[in-house]
Specification:
6-stranded mixed β-sheet; about 220 residues; alpha/beta; Nucleotidyltransferase, domain 5; single chain
């Protein structure tokens, strides 16, 4: 009873799109892995400080039944209050220019509508997850509720279980592209890195599936 009262009070102070996002997790039904919708995403940012830096762009692709749905991708650019020109050589995003940009709150609304309550995938996911959470908190919202998978950690675990190698703490996305023969076209763009991450994920779980060790406990542990 107390929880219901608290939740109603919490929801009353938030916009409808956030309430819809949070409430969707109550209705979520667990499906087999190959029927589940995964969303691989990436951020391009002004730097690595989660408090001081900002997201420049968000890119995402969806995966269902071992297939990347290229007809339903997500890419958005955000208007810049914080800008570091020295990082342009990495991501190529100018403060002004021809790209259409939206406010942070608009980006949040569109991103949540795209990811829904599905499982998120990112490489070194803690950073991207943390940057999005800081953006949410700046606007008085809570943190992301989605389960998430880090492709670096997943790949390391797969190497351990398949090849009995020692767990390696750090694999760059470039490392995985080379080992799994994934093209690095459009590297360091949010949508390009999201697509690369999705391909890395699919190739990694294919290895696990082939050896009958692809299970939810393993993916989300």
């Amino acid at each position: 009873m107390m929880w219901n009262w608290f939740r109603k009070k919490y929801n009353d102070n938030h916009p409808d799109f956030w309430k819809h996002y949070v409430d969707s997790f109550d209705k979520k039904i667990k499906k087999p892995i190959h029927e589940t919708r995964f969303v691989a995403f990436d951020t391009e940012t002004t730097g690595f400080d989660k408090k001081e830096d900002r997201i420049l762009s968000l890119g995402a692709v969806e995966i269902i039944n071992k297939t990347i749905k290229t007809n339903n991708t997500f890419e958005i650019y955000i208007k810049q209050d914080v800008f570091k020109p020295e990082t342009v050589k990495i991501h190529g995003i100018l403060k002004d220019g021809d790209l259409e940009k939206v406010s942070e709150i608009e980006a949040i609304q569109h991103f949540l509508a795209y990811i829904k309550n599905d499982i998120l995938i990112a490489h070194h996911a803690g950073f991207d997850y943390g940057m999005v959470n800081e953006m949410l908190l700046r606007h008085g919202l809570g943190k992301l509720k989605n389960d998430f998978i880090d492709t670096g950690v997943l790949f390391s675990k797969s190497k351990h279980i398949i090849y009995h190698e020692n767990l390696k703490k750090h694999y760059t996305l470039d490392d995985l592209c080379k080992e799994l023969n994934v093209s690095m076209a459009d590297r360091h763009t949010s949508i390009g890195d999201a697509l690369i991450t999705a391909l890395v994920f699919l190739k990694t779980i294919a290895r696990l599936d082939k050896r009958n060790v692809l299970k939810w406990d393993y993916l989300l542990k």
